[in-house]
Target: Glutaredoxin domain-containing protein
Amino acid sequence: MNLFQRKRQRPFIYPTERRDIELVMYARTFGCWDQARAEAWLREHSIPYRVVDISREPGAAERLLHWVGYLSVPTFIIARPGEDEPIAPPEPLNGRRPRGLHRGTLITEPSNEQLLAFLLDHKLVAIADNELAV
Model:
């Protein structure tokens, strides 16, 4: 049973105090369902993130195309504060589809569970069991 299937006792997900890196979301001005869902999930858990809008910011779409091969949003990277590039090059796709693939410092169009795993790996969130958590 995974964390999102538990009914009686859902996990309490909270941001850590880590400040040497930040979560950056590559997004569009007019996003899609995946972008809206991911933003709602991040807000629900008070997880800080910064948006790079590929519709408005010069060079952002080209960077995303280089990393992913598509203009897929949301794409999340782990960056140094204020930077728009990953802290390390993402792992290569090697013919795999990018959707939901954890590539070290980058993940594209993740499910909530995949995004949680990505954030846990980078120690940007922690989990505490709490019967009152919703």
User: Anything to note?
Assistant: Residues 15-84+99-129 form a domain with the Glutaredoxin fold (CATH 3.40.30.10). The mean pLDDT is 92.
